[in-house]
Design brief:
A six-stranded mixed beta sheet has the order 2-1-6-5-4-3. It is globular. The longest helix has 18 residues. A hairpin with a 2-residue loop joins strand 3 and strand 4. It is built from three helices and six strands. By secondary structure, it is an alpha+beta fold. It has a single domain, classed as Nuclear Transport Factor 2, Chain: A, CATH 3.10.450.50.
Amino acid sequence: MMLMSPTLALAGPLEDANAAVDRWSAAYGTNDPEVIARTYCPTAILLGTVSPIISEGTQAIIKYFTPIKGSGNTNTIEERRTITINDNAAVVAGFYTFTRMVDGKPVPGPSRFSMLVTKEGNEWCIAHHHSSPRVLPKN
């Protein structure tokens, strides 16, 4: 359960921010909207991959993730870059793949993301998250 909640800062901001993003990915794999929402700051803003609206705050984020409850969906982070802003904030951007279960079969959804991860008190959480489908290179 410790993996699913914000953590105390034990390293530098770059490591702590990346650990917060990894906790989000693990939380997504639980398919529990409330567990996922705990990785976000209470006033976080989410621009979800499949949403036409801005989800702001814990309840809106729970509502956004409610359709995946019990679905078996997963997320794998493939590549990321992290920019430390200061001791309390970092931006993490990269590529991840959502694997959604459709009719019992895994369907990959390559996507890209950016997250502003901030330290509130002694805990790191996601303050802003933007996700969109990934444009794959043409061969």
